[in-house]
Amino acid sequence: MQDASAKIEIRVERIAQLLNMLDPYPFQERDLDPQAEAFIVEWAGDLPAKQPLAIVLHLPAEEAGTDAARAFGQTLNHFFRARAEEKSRELKELFRMGRIALAIGLAVLAACILLSELISGRLGDRPFAHFVSESLIILGWVANWRPIEIFLYDWWPLVRDRRLYRRLAQARVEIRAAS
Fold this sequence. Notes:
By secondary structure, this protein is mainly alpha-helical. It has two domains: 6-87 and 169-178, no CATH class; 88-159. Helices cover 64% and strands 12% of the residues. The longest helix is centred in the middle third of the chain and has 57 residues, at 67-123. The radius of gyration is 26 Å and the shape is rod-shaped.
């Protein structure tokens, strides 16, 4: 039976090439090297979204048998699980900021509508009154630009990235000794 996983193939001489060596955490909790992360994420993003992922790591035989190589799957899964959680926090913060921006935008819109009505009532149908009244209405709607942008568009990339990181966190990691 053929494996249905979409594969990401990586060839390195040492596991350490994939890890951020400045990260002081133990091996299983260490961050990936930013270039290695970018390579894996970009490749995973190009693969079919419905297929499970498999990361195949090709190493020299002596490196493939090390404890670091055997633990790399756990390291990789931990790293991408943390990235997915980070995207969830960013999404939560974006929606929190969106709610604040919406409250401010609606308050400004309400104030602009009231001022517009007040000016129209006081100054009548004069061109200047019409100009100020329409300008206030436009200002009120512009004040809602950011919350509309947040709730219609800004959250999509975060959800897409979180979904990709979750897939990568569940990826099967296979170590292959190169001959």
